[in-house]
Amino acid sequence: MPSLDLTADNFERTVLDNEIVLVDFWASWCGPCRMFAPIYEEAAQANDDIVFGSVNTEEERGLSAAAQIQSIPTLMAFKKGTLVFSQAGALPAPALTELIGKVRELDIDAALAQQGDEATGDKAE
């Protein structure tokens, strides 16, 4: 499945309504973005159970600002609506494949429960 164009109108709904969403923040003038695009599209084709979205930072300045994008490309990964990865810079294909595997394996419910326990000072015994 090709990547989905994400905008201010559909970004939140897409992230919240899907198990795993990867988002590539890019611009047409960005050389590293153009180098990363085919790697990202190939991963999208190979992982049809994951939503791959793209945000054109030139067209979606407000969304890019809300996401605190400082440089591009920036790749974000969400699991069950929670941001679990954010990194600027183009990833090589093997690193993207590894990231996808780690996001799939992540038990987000357990991670959020542990984070909540740490915030309140509760410790599992």
Automatic annotation (TrEMBL):
GO terms for molecular function: protein-disulfide reductase activity. GO terms for cellular component: cytosol. It comes from the Bacteria. Keywords: Disulfide bond, Electron transport, Oxidoreductase, Redox-active center, Transport. InterPro entries: Thioredoxin, Thioredoxin-like_sf, Thioredoxin_CS, Thioredoxin_domain. The keyword Transport applies. Belongs to the thioredoxin family. This is Thioredoxin. It comes from Nocardioides thalensis.
